[in-house]
Amino acid sequence: MTTLLLADGETTAHALTAALKLGGEVHMLRLADCPPLAEPLADLIVALAPAYDAIVAPATSTAKNVLPRVAALLDVMQVSEVIEVVSPDIFRRPTYAGNAIETVQSGDGRKVITVRASAFAATQLDGIAVIAPPPSADPGLSRFVSEAAEKSDRPELGSAKIVVSGGRAFGSKEQFDALLVPLAAKLNAAIGASRAAVDAGYAANDLQVGQTGKIVAPDLYIAVGISGAIQHLAGMKESKVIVAINSDPSAPIFGVADFGLVGDLFTIVPELTEKL
Amino acid sequence: MKILVAVKRVVDANFRVRVKSDGSGVELDNVKMSMNPFDEIAVEEAVRLKEKGIATEIVAVSIGPAKAEDTLRQALAMGADRAILVVHDGRAEPLGIAKTLAAIARAEAPDLLLLGKQAIDDDSNQTGQMLAALLGRGQATFASKIEIANGNATVAREVDGGQQTLELTLPAVVTVDLRLNTPRFASLPNIIKARAKPLTKTTPAEFGVDLAPRLTVLKVEEPPVRQAGVIVGSVTELVDKLRNQARVLP
Ligand SMILES: Cc1cc2nc3c(=O)[nH]c(=O)nc-3n(C[C@H](O)[C@H](O)[C@H](O)COP(=O)(O)OP(=O)(O)OC[C@H]3O[C@@H](n4cnc5c(N)ncnc54)[C@H](O)[C@@H]3O)c2cc1C
After folding, report:
1. Nearest to A69 among B133, B162, B215 (CB)
2. What topology is assigned to B2-224 in CATH?
3. What distance in angstroms lies between residue B20's CA and the mean position of ligand 1's atoms?
4. For residues B55 and B148, what is the distance between their CA atoms, to the nearest angstrom?
5. What integer is the mean pLDDT of B16-22?
6. From the centroid of its chain, how far is CA A113?
7. Which of A56, B52, B83, B128 is 20 to 30 A off residue A27, Cα-Cα?
8. Ligand 1 binding pocket includes A114 (Cβ within 6 Å)
């Protein structure tokens, strides 16, 4: 058994834990060393595939983009967002926004897997053999136009120990920033947001937590002015400790919160920031 | 320009599914079914491209049970011109669906293939990428903006760390994200008109596609339930609990 691990950012260390559970050797290909476009990148990974029994990657946006393309070229059904490796061919994965956990057995000879990083502890990458990407030709089907990086001095959402998330209740980007940034700074926390807050432009799109955004499981998750829709809960309900601040005592978020505080966020958040 | 848009019939996003007591799957009897929300966004985008005079024909395709005709009728009511239903009962996986869509695409020769980025039932996020691979075409996933000009699609994508813009040579596959648009509600006259729009029924066998799943579902379980905790009375109490009980703050 030899596994190819696609290294892509901080969550690679968590995906390594899953890759090691498959048994056997793990080699690492750094996506940073490879062409970024999906078409040449998939061709490059497919060229490496014959030497491997499994291809594993953390479920980052780059891996989610390229790995199904690789799987189809290899005629393999990918197993997405694995939360447990039961055996080298049996995996557990969430479906229906995490409301039904499937245990699946893959009948494909070669396994193609993305890993939900929040479900695995991190393993040191030291000592893992890094392989050089083979030369690849760009089929010229797509071209890079621009990249608008969201600059933030906050810790990365996917790996932060503490996350403070804001919802629609903030009412404006100005209030979102004025209240949440000082709280996050005090806690050295990453900032997250509900879909409603992102849609309204209070926060950048890559800060959306939920079924169709980022999946996080920090030690402490503070949800402020977020109702707790199933799609939001899907992205944060594995957090160790959850705090909810909401003016509506019947908000569903209180159903998963370890500590709830009912009240107006516009008075609670500044007071909390001050008392920390 | 011709657009092919793929739609899936799924459990409604507002419905919380229950796992069957025998662990064989989720309860689907008497459950509200709808078009996958991401696919609605894909249909809406296709219709807007037609309204702008860029697209000339929109073909909606679904692979699923006979009831998926409802989903296709909704796409027709939103503005698709005709529909193809590939009748298939039982579980199907992204790889098999992508193979079926690829066979239809070879016959229909669309310039743009629009899909939702993921289905909210199996949450796989694979079909569009697989379809692009099988057709040997370019792909742009997680689209928040699409512009068509001079035989190219310029697509803004939502990625980790911000936004990325790609230019694709058409034909190409684009999977859409939540912020691309807000889908319209079909008007009553359009719902009535949709009943008369052409809908062809076919089977996977007609395309020689094997939809047999590669993954065997051994069991389906409810996730562990999280117990609701306590409501605290003040910020001071909250800080105290976080420090001294939960020990998550210094
Ligand atoms: C296909 C699909 C995918 C989705 N994916 C996601 C996803 O990935 N992530 C996600 O988050 N959502 C997702 N959603 C959206 C989700 O269903 C909810 O609409 C969204 O999470 C609601 O955001 P919210 O809690 O900020 O807003 P609301 O539901 O409007 O809640 C606002 C909350 O703020 C409280 N409030 C108001 N004023 C105050 C105040 N002054 N002080 C304190 N509290 C106050 C209210 O009581 C309320 O509970 C998805 C939906 C669909 C259909």
Report:
1. B133
2. Rossmann fold (3.40.50)
3. 28
4. 9
5. 94
6. 14
7. B128
8. no
Residue A135 belongs to some domain of the structure: no
| pLDDT attached to residue B101 | 98
Distance (angstroms) between ligand 1 centre and the Cα of A250 equals: 14
Q: Is B28 helix (H, G, I), strand (E, B) or coil?
A: coil
SS3 A257: coil
The angle at the Cα of A255, spanning A249 to A260, to the nearest 5 degrees, equals 55
Residue at A146 is within a domain: no
Domain assignment present for A111: yes
The domain segmentation of chain B, as residue ranges, is 2-224
Cβ pair A143:B166 closer than 8 A: yes
**Taking a contact as any Cβ pair under 8 Å apart, which residues of chain B between 66 and 125 contact chain A?**
93-95, 98, 117-118, 120-125
Binding residues of A: 168, 194-195, 208-212, 225-232, 246
State pLDDT tens for residues A213-252: 999 999 999 999 999 999 999 999 999 999 999 999 999 9
Question: What is the number of structural domains in chain A?
Answer: 2
pLDDT digits (tens, 9 = 90+) for A134-158: 998 999 999 999 998 777 778 889 8
The boundaries of the domain holding residue A213 are 157-275
Q: What average pLDDT does the segment A156-162 reach?
A: 90
A-B Cβ pairs (cutoff 8 Å, strict): 251
Complete DSSP assignment for A135-169: P-----SEEEEEEEE----SPPTTT-SEEEEE-GG
Mean pLDDT of B87-108: 97
Identify the CATH number of the domain in which residue A227 sits.
3.40.50.1220
Q: Which residues contact A135 (CB under 8 A, 6 or more apart)?
A: none
> Could you tell me the distance, in angstroms and rounded to a whole number, from the CA of residue A193 to the centre of ligand 1?
9
Interface contact flag, A38 B132, Cβ < 8 Å: yes
The reply to whether residue A241 touches residue B246, judged by beta carbons under 8 angstroms, is yes
Predicted model pTM: 0.96
- Chain B residue with Cα closest to A150: B162
